[in-house]
Amino acid sequence: MTLTQLKHMVELANTGSFVKSAENLFLTQPALSRSIQSLEEELGCKLFDRQGRQSTLTVMGEEIFRRAQVLLDLAKDLKGSSQKLKKGLVGQLKIGMGSGPGAILMTPLLQYIAIQYPHLHVEIVRGTTDMLVESLRSRKLDALVIDARSLKPAADLKSEIIYETPGAFMCRPDHPLTRLKKITLADIAKYPVASTPLSDEIERTLIDRYGDSGNIGSLVNIKCSEISSLVEISKNSDAVLLAIRRSAPTLTELKVAPALNASARFGFVTIVNRSESPLLAHIKTFIESNLSQTQESNT
């Protein structure tokens, strides 16, 4: 049984004429007759009573006709949905975001989707790099936007750098450190230092700049994967935040000597050779556009 056979049956039921139905379907009359006969044989029942040139549905035919119409409507709807999926207008997508990218991108991304693509089902998942990568590999997530420095190289992962942003030591505007003419890491270490989990590469950079005192284990004593919470802590206490500068525009950047000169690199991460949802291209394009526009406005 095929949708084409059901289409033939519905057309014949509507016209009651093999001649007229064959014309509407662009078939020969014998081809239409074979299609209806094959369907009757498969269903094991007679669908039409032939009375001269007129064909009317049997009792069983009327029941099959009603169900055939439902199936054909569903098939039509499915075809329409498929076209929308190809264009990225509908569907489901789950994106994992690290603390830095999440702090910058989550709100504008969700707002963009709500306005431009109201029928998309998009979920943003926050977490550590290891947790997000595990979810990506288990197909629970479609893509990640994370600090690429914290990603361990792997043959099954495809990572594309889409943005680089500097890191900084930051504090509230009226913090005692802001009154110093020269700030060293020793000065910062007198206060609580807050940070999200940092990559090994960032720790090597800190040690290279500041020696053993740059060891994250001894320097950072407040850790949290949600950077927004750390920003609030720094706004309302003497804690110093070590994070990407863009994550805390209300805080004051400390000019440390020697300069930190460290940055976060946002990577767009997917599974190698995995068929990607058409929605993913829309998301990636927006993220790149949003980051580049914000960068231009800051320069």
Mean pLDDT: 88
**Share of residues in helices:** 40-55%
User: How are helices and strands ordered from N to C?
Assistant: HHHEEHEHEHEEHEHHEHEEEH
Q: Estimate the strand proportion.
A: 15-25%
- CATH architectural category of the largest domain: 3-Layer(aba) Sandwich
Q: Structural class per helix/strand content? A: alpha/beta
Q: Give the overall silhouette.
A: rod-shaped
Compute the separation of the termini in Å. 65 Å
Number of helices: 11
Q: What does the main sheet amount to?
A: 9 strands, mixed
Low-pLDDT residue intervals, each spanning 5 or more residues = none
Radius of gyration: 31 Å
CATH topology of the largest domain: D-Maltodextrin-Binding Protein, domain 2
Number of domains: 2
CATH class of the largest domain: Alpha Beta
Descriptive report:
With 299 residues, the chain is an alpha/beta fold. The chain has eleven helices and eleven strands. 30% of the residues are buried.
Summarize the structure.
With 299 residues, the chain is an alpha/beta fold.
Based on the model shown, name its key terms.
11 strands, D-Maltodextrin-Binding Protein, domain 2, alpha/beta, 299 residues, Arc Repressor Mutant, subunit A
